[in-house]
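Researcher: Can you fold this with heme C in place?
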Amino acid sequence: MKRSAFTLVLSSSVLVALMAAPAVAQPAAPPTFTKDVAPILNRACVSCHRPGGIAPMALVSFQDARPWARAIKQQVGARSMPPWGADPQHGRFKNDRSLSDAEIRLITAWADQGAPKGNDADLPATPLFAENWTHREPDVVIEMPVDFEVPAEGQVDVTDFYVKAPFTEDVFVKALEIRPGAAQSVHHAGVYIVDKIPEGASLVNGRILNAEGKPMSRRDIARANGLQSGRGENDKLLSFVPGRGYEEYQLGAGQRIKAGSYINFYMHYQPTGVAVKDRTRVGLYLAKRGEQVTHQIYHDLDAAGPTTYIVDGKELGKLDNDDQLPPIPPFADDWTVVSVHAITEPVTLHGLTPHLHLRGKSMKYTLILPDGREEILLYVPKYDFNWQVYYELESPRRIPGGSKVIVTTLFDNSLKNRYNPAPQNTVYWSDQSWDEMYAPQVRITLDQRDLRRNGDATTNGQRQRQQ
Ligand code: HEC
């Protein structure tokens, strides 16, 4: 008995020894930069960490990355890099750059084992970036008509610049990117379309001046052009904040820029201690020959139906503008704003992008279908003002008329919020970052508003008529 038990023990330990033998004789090779790490950095990091990118250092070559190995391990381990805020339990996103647990383990093992280079032959091709643009060279680049001198210090009012778009026919855009000239000094920027210059106004050095010679804002112009809400039906092309500034649209979605319109650069500068010149540009990727843009992208859910608000538990009904929300009291944490967006006609959802300021804490978009089923479209549990992300759905999602989207947003005006500049203040609503902003943005198309139905052109470079 004893003997056979001994045999059994012996044979199983021999078995274990045999299985482990190769590892003992030849320890598992550590991950290398060329084979294991570079593919991850290429996918998730180098769009920002490259020469001319927005990050402070490049992570393209081994020489670039080697000195940063420990910092990289620390940043990816804490999930601070790459910037990405979506809770992975909800929604799938085409531009998801977050790392899997396995990728984080791999980078950690590489850094812990001396961050070796590996074989040159294993190195994948470096993604090609057109100079400054994160994707290929755009088909059309439109820039601010003048340089703006950002002073070294002080506060610069939000400034509007205008330039006539170079189009004599309507054009259809499938993707676009904003590139700031002086990236460090551009706090944020928006690019809008303005149909026409109001009567009596004139375009001088990139400013639209009213009859008295005073510069006009986009809202002044819209009002002077007779638009009640101070906003055109589709006036926004795109906005830029660090980490966001490129978008592309799937299916027949895109943006139309009408012939003869003007492009408005809405610029918010932030002095950085050094005087610099900025000339921000927008790059357009046009629909290819024969490709139709059948549906216009809208940035707000209110294009599909009315919105009502519930703030700190009180129903407010409909507001003309977000800046009519009641202010956030001093030291309030978990101050809750809920917006209920009725979807009165069928829409297709392409993406979501929460925009709040420094008190923003979290944002959740919940879809309620007409039959009552609920689904969380996006949950950003720790909103970060420094990293505003556009979450592009993996594939566009149809939402039937009669649905609702409920957006639940928490604000933290307490001392617990380390970004809070002044918890003792009552916080009002405006574009300035010391005020708060509530913008549960989306990218939607309205299914029934097919551009082809009006007999409008829907492709670039050729007029198309339908019955
Ligand atoms: C959207 C742009 C962007 C992406 C993508 C990105 N980073 Fe960064 N990264 C930045 C910027 C900007 C900074 C500097 C400001 C900051 O720390 O927030 C930074 C800072 C860092 C730092 C800290 C540098 C220091 O001074 O300590 C490390 C390390 C880092 N990134 C690694 C990575 C890695 C690794 C990835 C990919 C897995 C990545 N980053 C993806 C923009 C980006």
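Model: Folded with heme C in place. Residues 41, 44-45, 47-49, 54-56, 68, 71-72, 75-76, 81-83, 97, 99, 243 surround heme C (CB under 6 Å).
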